[in-house]
Amino acid sequence: MSYGLRDMDGMRVELCDECGFDAREPRDLPTAFAEAYASLEQLRGHPDENTRPEAETWSGAEYVDHCVDVASQIVAICRRGARRPESAASVSITEAAAATAELVHELSDAQWDEGTDGWPIELSVRGAATHLLHTSSTTSGTSVAATPSSRSPTASRSSPAAESGHIPIRLSR
Q1: Which of the four CATH numbers 2.40.10, 1.10.760, 1.10.287, 1.20.120 does domain 3-163 have?
Q2: Angle, to 10 degrees, between the axis of helix 60-81 and the axis of helix 125-137?
Q3: pTM to 2 decimal places
């Protein structure tokens, strides 16, 4: 498996050979996050949610808990970077979905390109959100973000990028 940040075409992008995530693909972030969190909600209600498919593979419940923790941390990082008020830490997948949706809908175009803290590399708010989408959309070896339906142009934010239907995702300039 090859996962990580790669410098390509003058920008640093997040790519994952295992699930097919490619940050260069245009996505409607509200839709992509909604679909990712809906998939995670389904893991919570699954009869085998606490069963590890293999010794080295997290159970659905463990993965959902991980995604809640990551979402809480990354939303806080993005809010600081965009100079937005703090929000309460998420303790459930429903709260993580709500906090992420609120963040995605309230940021201006300029705020998406602000720098963040908490990373060993230079990373924009957009880059941090991209990493959150990748983390939240990878379940059972597949990526919700890689499915065609998650790239539908239905953004509801009022910005030039949202009005075009896509928010291009790049990690840094």
Answers
A1: 1.20.120
A2: 170
A3: 0.76
